[in-house]
Design goal:
Layout (H helix, E strand, L loop, with lengths): L2 E4 L10 H6 L4 E4 L28 H7 L3 H8 L6 H7 L4 H5 L11 E3 L14 H13 L3 E5 L2 E5 L2 E2 L4 E5 L3 E5 L10 E5 L2 E5 L4 E4 L2 E7 L2 E3 L3 H8 L27 E4 L2 E6 L2 E3 L12 E6 L2 E4 L13 E6 L2 E4 L4 E3 L4 H7 L3 E7 L2 E2 L6 E3 L6 E12 L8 E4 L6 E15 L9 E5 L11 E15 L4 E5 L4 E13 L4 H5 L4 E9 L10
Parallel strand pairs: 3-4, 4-7, 5-8, 6-11, 7-12, 8-13, 11-14, 12-15, 13-16, 15-17, 16-18, 17-19, 18-20, 19-22, 20-23, 21-24, 22-25, 23-25, 24-26, 25-27, 26-28, 27-29, 28-30, 29-31, 31-32
Antiparallel strand pairs: 1-2, 9-10
């Protein structure tokens, strides 16, 4: 193992603590990955100059340095951890991940859209008035653009830095299905492939500190109306530069609903969302994203609830999903375009959510090039005869990509749907019947504990080609009523079951310990 030797000597406090921090007693420290992002330092304790930025030290290592444990904790919270460290730490990695996720706070200044010409009633186009309010808020240093009670008709809304679009309790933003209201084309990702397409109903590009909050309602007009308006679906030519991949009218690609793109510090909180054109919440290439307290009730085609896409540090909590597709689908790139961009999704925490209808409660993939990793799911309730899976993993040999370090615990599951491609744990590594391809799909280090399933016709469904790597999949300390006992034996070798109890269908589960 490579080591680093650091020499330290004593200097009086009056001459500066930093010399002490930069000149410590001889110590050998494990070499750390050089590719980590730079550290954001706690102002009270910059790291010793002799230690490279981005190096993560263990508690034992800092104990050897004799530094204050509280100071160490504050500094360490800002340091990135590697996939190998997450695999080793498991749930103990969560506090360090959460330290990177902080919802933005906005100045206490309100800009009412009605002061800029917006009129309630659902018939007057308020697009320009909302844009003026956002521009004024941004130019004033930020604050809240307030949508008061009433129904306001609008086209595309583009957010700017330090602006929170806030809907009062009785407010409804009714989005037009006139596609001309979503031009000019903007840069987006469509199912993992970049292109120029309709502006999403709510969009931001390259902004920081943005929010969409309040107890009001977003109504997207519905997938059927959008399908009629956008035409027959056309394939994106990935051999062209992104700026030349012009889709829009006639290309048949419905926009996703709320899309911050290449943004930092995002809060989406409290809203009710209906009738999405396609996916509901879709941050792309974003860092520090908080999605909480949403009620998403949208059953159109491809109506995923929340799809972080090539994002880092994402918290999804306290949401209710009742959707026409996956409740939560964690994604990154697709095929060659995903390899071109090469940006994984990592450090995602899902907790305290309710999943009703949906293809998967929490799904990873199928867009998973290059990788989805370091995902934690806990304390969720899932139940519906239209819910196809609790945890769903999708990939293909055409796509490749790695899904790794997935942890789930304390999930209460009522019913799961019956039929083909339905199971509590659904691993589809020949997704869309792709049986062969030049790439290796990988699923590894999945740890599931404390799951209680009341009506589970099938425990596991696993389909994979000969080249797939599926390893270290563990289900432990769980109880399910309904699956056949033979399922434990059928999946041995690829899945390890420890203290898993299968009961006859209809049997009451034992009380929680």
């Amino acid at each position: 193992m490579k080591t680093k030797s650091l020499s330290f000597g004593f200097c009086p406090p009056a001459s500066g603590f930093w010399h002490l921090a930069a000149a410590l007693l001889v110590l050998s420290l494990p070499a750390r990955a050089a590719e980590r992002a730079p550290v954001t330092n706690d102002a009270s304790f910059p790291p010793p100059a002799a230690i490279a930025p981005g190096v993560a030290l263990t508690p034992a290592e800092f104990a050897g340095l004799g530094l204050n444990a509280m100071t160490f904790s504050n500094w360490r919270d800002q340091i990135e951890i590697t996939p190998a460290e997450v695999a080793r730490l498991g749930w103990d990695a969560v506090p360090q991940i959460l330290a990177h996720i902080k919802a933005p706070v906005f100045p206490a200044k309100n800009f009412y859209i009605t002061d800029f010409g917006a009129k309630a009633g659902g018939t007057t186009d308020c697009t320009e008035a909302i844009a003026k309010a956002i521009a004024a808020c941004h130019e004033a240093g930020g604050g809240h653009v307030v949508v008061p009670d009433g129904t306001f008709l609008t086209g595309a809304i583009r957010l700017l830095s330090n602006v929170d679009l806030h809907l009062d309790d009785g407010a409804v933003l009714q989005f037009s299905t006139d596609v001309q209201k979503y031009l000019p084309l903007v840069r987006v990702r469509y199912e993992g492939v970049e292109c120029m397409n309709f502006c999403p109903p709510i969009y931001a590009y390259g902004q920081e500190n943005i929010g969409v909050t309040g107890r009001g309602t977003l109504d997207g007009g519905g997938a059927p109306a959008w399908s009629r308006a956008t035409g027959t679906r056309r394939t994106i030519d990935v051999t062209l530069p992104v700026e030349q991949r012009l889709m829009g009218p006639g290309a048949g690609l419905r926009p996703n609903f709320v899309v911050p793109y290449e943004c930092k510090n995002i809060l989406i909180d409290g809203l009710t969302i209906h009738n999405s054109p396609m996916w509901e919440i879709n941050p792309v290439f974003c860092t520090n994203v908080t999605v909480r307290n949403l009620r998403i009730d949208s059953h159109g085609a491809n109506n995923d609830g929340c799809d972080p896409d090539s994002c880092r540090y994402v918290l999804i909590e306290g949401c209710i999903f009742d959707t026409g597709d996956d409740c939560i689908a964690i994604k990154c790139g697709k095929d060659d375009d995903g390899r071109r961009v090469n940006r994984p999704t990592e450090f995602v925490i899902v907790r305290d959510c309710v999943m009703k209808d949906g293809h998967g409660g929490v799904t990873l993939g199928s867009e998973c090039t290059p990788a989805i990793r370091n995902v934690f799911v806990e304390n969720c309730r899932m139940s519906s005869t239209q819910l196809n899976a609790v945890l769903r993993f999708k990939n293909t040999p055409v796509r490749g990509g790695i899904i790794e370090n997935v942890f789930a615990r304390n999930l209460d599951v009522g019913s799961v749907a019956t039929g083909n491609s339905r199971a509590a744990f659904l691993i589809e590594f020949t997704y869309m019947n792709s049986l062969t391809g030049p790439y290796v799909p990988v699923l590894r280090n999945v740890n599931v504990t404390g799951i209680r399933g009341v009506d589970i016709p099938r425990l596991v469904s696993l389909t994979a080609g000969a080249t797939a790597v599926i390893e270290n999949i563990r289900i432990a300390d769980s109880v399910f009523a309904g699956p056949a006992p033979a399922e434990l034996e059928q999946n041995q070798g690829r899945i390890t079951f420890t203290n898993v109890t299968l009961l006859p269908r209809g049997t009451a589960l034992p009380a929680k310990p």
